[in-house]
Amino acid sequence: MDEMSKRTDLLHYLESFITQERKDKFNTVLNNRTYHFTVAIEDVYQMHNTSAVMRSCDVFGIQDLHVIEQKFAKTIDGEIALGAQKWVDVHRYSSSKACLQSLKEKGYQIIATSPHEGSSTLEDYDISPKSVLFFGTEKEGLSDAILKKADGYLTIPMVGFSESLNISVAAAIIMQQLTQRLRSSPIKWQLSEEEKILKRLDWARKSIKDIHRIEARWWDELAKFEL
What we know:
The protein is α/β, with parallel strands linked by helices and 227 residues long. It has helices at residues 3-14, 20-30, 47-59, 78-81, 96-105, 144-149, 167-183, 193-207, 211-226, and strands at 37-42, 64-68, 89-93, 109-113, 131-135, 152-154. A six-stranded parallel beta sheet has the order 3-2-1-5-4-6, with helices on both faces.
C-alpha cells in the first residue's frame, strides 16, 4: 500500500469519530479553498491585525498565510482569529529574504500592496498567475527588500482625506475582491483531490480528542496487517 492510500484509509478511520455534519462542512469549505492566491504579512506590529488577517484568509478561502517576524515575533490572538488558526496554515519566517525565496520556489509571483507608480487596481489586476499578496507594517508599509523583488503592485483607490487603511481592512478588501473574481473565472484555482484529502486528514486530527492514542492504534493495526 502506497503512502497516499495509507493516508486515505487513515482519513476514513478518523472520520468515523466525527459527525456527518462536520464531515460535510469540511467538504464544503475545501471546495472553496485555494492555493492560487496566498497572503504574506511583513513585521506587523499589532498582534490583533495578524489575527484578523488570518480570519479573513479563512473567510475568503485562502489556505496559506505567511508571516515574516523579522522584528516582531507574535503569537496569534485567538479571540480575534476565532478558531481560524485551526483551519488556515500559518508559515513563519525570520526574514523577508527567506519568505521571498520560499514562495518564488513554489511558483508564486510577488505582488506588493502599495500605492506604487504603475500599481494595478482591483478591477484591472490580472488574476491568472499564482500570486502572493504582500502586506506591510501599519506605519511604514512594505520594506525595500519586498518592493524591489516585487513582480507587480496592487493598490486600493481612495477618494477621501485618509491616505491609508488599517492592514487588516485592506487585506480583507483585496482578498474578497480577488477571490470573488477568481471563482467566476475559468482558472483552475481549486485544490487537487490529493490536497483535499491531506487537508481533511489534518482537520480531522484537529477535531478529535485523544487523537494521538487513536491514531497510534490505527498504525499499530496496519503494521500487524502488513506483516
